[in-house]
Amino acid sequence: MLKNAFRATVEHHRYSDLGLPSVGVTIAVNEDELVLRIRDRGGGMPRALLDKIFDYHFSSNNLANEPSLLSYTDFENHFHDQLVTHDSTNRMSGYGFGVPTSRAYCEYLNGSLTIETMYGIGSDVYVRVGLLTSENRIVRL
């Protein structure tokens, strides 16, 4: 989720003369859970995308030169080309696995992943992970 926030911030402000705004991370722990808030100014996303971003193979990065075109990864026709012959040999995004896998891990650890977005401004991601307790000691995962 941090990588997504950094990428969105850099892409949204790439032509700005003011520099890049920071990506903020807030960490809180209480008796029941660990909460991370990741706040960026990466332009956010349209509300219509919020349901799709939790689908495997959906990416907003498949067509980087056309930010208005968002799609699912095409495994039958172009996935090998995206993996092997893409312009960037060290590509870390665009496969549509990061967000849904992050949510799956959060849910496995008795938590949740929620995203609040303001299109044109940025997004807040809340990662909640349950804590295991053992004899009045908190065991952090």
TrEMBL record:
Localization, UniProt: Mitochondrion matrix
Protein name per its UniProtKB record: Protein-serine/threonine kinase
GO cellular component, one term: mitochondrial matrix
Single GO term (MF): pyruvate dehydrogenase (acetyl-transferring) kinase activity
EC number(s) stated in the UniProt entry for this protein: 2.7.11.-
GO BP annotations, alphabetical order: regulation of glucose metabolic process
Family: Belongs to the PDK/BCKDK protein kinase family.
Organism per entry: Adineta ricciae
Enzyme class, broadest EC rank: transferase
Organism lineage string: Eukaryota, Metazoa, Spiralia, Gnathifera, Rotifera
